[in-house]
Specification:
The chain is mainly beta. Helix content is 7%, strand content 33%. Strands 1-2-8-3-6-11 form a six-stranded antiparallel beta sheet, with helices on one face. A three-stranded antiparallel beta sheet has the order 5-4-7, with no helix packed on it. Strands 9-10 form a two-stranded antiparallel ribbon. It is elongated and about 70 Å long.
Amino acid sequence: MNSDSDLQIAGDILSVQHLLQPAREHPATVAEFVGLARSIAEDRSQWEHLVRYDATTRWYHRLRTGPGYEVWLLSWVPGQGSGRHDHGPSSGVLTVLDGELTEHSARGPLTLRAGAQRVFAPGYAHDVANDSLDGAVSLHVYFPGLTEMPMHAADRVVAQAGAAAHHCTPTHRASVGVDVA
C-alpha cells in the first residue's frame, strides 16, 4: 500500500465495469482485421457450405460487412486469376482457406498455401492466380470496404467496369504487401 495516497481499492478491481475497456463489436486495427480473417478461416462452418466453383468467371460472395469493412469469399478453379489490379483506397487482408494461390507482384511470385495471410496497403498492385491443378478458396477483408479495383496494364491503369479511372504514381503503386506469420 502506498502511504502517500489516501486512495484504497477494496475488492475485485475487474468488477468495476467503467474501468474496463469494452469489447469491440467490430475490428478497427490491422491486427484486429487479421484476427477476424483468422477466426473465420478456422470456423469452416461459416463459409465452406457457400463455396461454388465457376469455370467461366471467378466466383465471389460477400460474407460479412461492418462499419468500414467488408469480408469476401472467393473461389478459384485451376488457371483463374484476378489480373493485375490494386484496391484503390482500401487496405486488405488476403487469407488462403483451401488450396494454393500465387501472388504476382513487383517483388516476383509468392506461393500462398492454406493458412497463409497477406496484408496490403492502399495502392498495392498484384495479380492473384490459381497456378495449381486443384481448386482454391480465399477470404478477403477490405478496410474501408472495396469501392474500386483498378486494373493495371503495364504502366497504365484501366478502370474495371463500374469503377472510375484511377491513375497511380509509381510511388503509390510501390509494393507494400506484408506476409503475416
